[in-house]
Structure formats: structure tokens, C-alpha cells
Amino acid sequence: MKNDKIKNIIFDLGDVILNIDVPIASKSFADLSGREQSEILTIFKENELFRQFETGLLDEATFRNYVREILNFPDLSDEAIDTAWNSLLLDLPPARVELLRKLATKYRIFLLSNTSSIHITQVNKILEASTGVEKLEDLFEIVFLSYEMGLMKPDIRIYQDVLDRAGLKAEETLFLDDNADNIRGAAQLGIDTIHVQKPVTILEYLKDYAV
Fold first, then answer.
1. What pTM does this model have?
2. Cα separation of 163 and 172, whole Å?
């Protein structure tokens, strides 16, 4: 159901615009290191690898060295680490980009993603290969990335920061994310939300907004 008050739309990236499969990354590192995938998941969780990299506590070089350290694999190349880290990034359907372009003629549209610099570099390559659009900034008024902001969803401060920096009113703003916790975080500020759940995509969720 379309909310006629909406003037702004904020999109998550993974599994909203770009298809992803997060467990593939841990499997890739398992294959590289000869360990079980479950062990890799435990190591990453105990060392808060995602959180540290995606809030900017680690830069790219420090991240790669940290991976070598926690996997006890000092000879692992930068390229091998980046390839394994990026393996969770799948395809970006061109129809979703066309939808964004259509929506941008009627609404202010933004991106808010928990992500890392290595992922964003690869996402832009996928975006250009599939649609001819060079970078995410070409699609959105502002691209908000967790590693640049020092905050991650569902921390309520990240949504407030987006509202403040873009000059948005919560009640005029719609936020789409595939993570229920992230949706609840935004809703606490009075932002209207849509919980994106596969196999339904933004093409269906936003069809009333695009007409």
C-alpha cells in the first residue's frame, strides 16, 4: 500500500538492490585455508571481523593482515582475500536500476548500507558490467556507507545521521531493508519501512510508487 506522505526513499544494498549470499564468503575462506566453514564462521564472529571492517575500525590493509592473523595463514595474498571476501556479492538485475531511475524522478532516493570499501569497489564493477552505470553515486542523491560513518544498522544513530545530513523528515521517508532488526531500528524514529523478503523484490514492493 502506497504511503502518499512519502517524499524520500532510502534503500539498503544487499538483497535489496544487489543479490548476495553471505555464507559463500565463509565457504570461500574455508576452501582457501583448508578449514571447515563452521570454524571460519566462529573465527569471524569471535573476532568481530564484519563489524570492525564495516564500521571503519580496520582499513583495507589492516583488514587483510587481520584475516591472515586470525586464520594463521601469513602467505594469503591480498587478491585471494579480496576475492573470497567479495564472493558473497552476486548479480545486480538491471530492472532494479531502471526502477531506481524512475523513482528518482519523483522522490529523493538514498542508499544506506552496512558494507566495506572492498565490497563497494566490487559492487561498482558489477553495477557497470550489468547496467553501464559506473558507480552507486550515479544512482542516488547521497550514498551512506557504514564504514565511512563509523556506525552500523540497526544502531538508531545511523538513521538519525542520515535524516540530519539529508534534511529529511522521518514521516516523509520510506526505508527498505532485508534485515528485520534494521527495519525495527529505522521504525523507532518514525520512518516508514518495508521489510524486503525474497523471492519478492523491490519491483513488486514499490510498483505503486513507480507509476
1. 0.97
2. 10
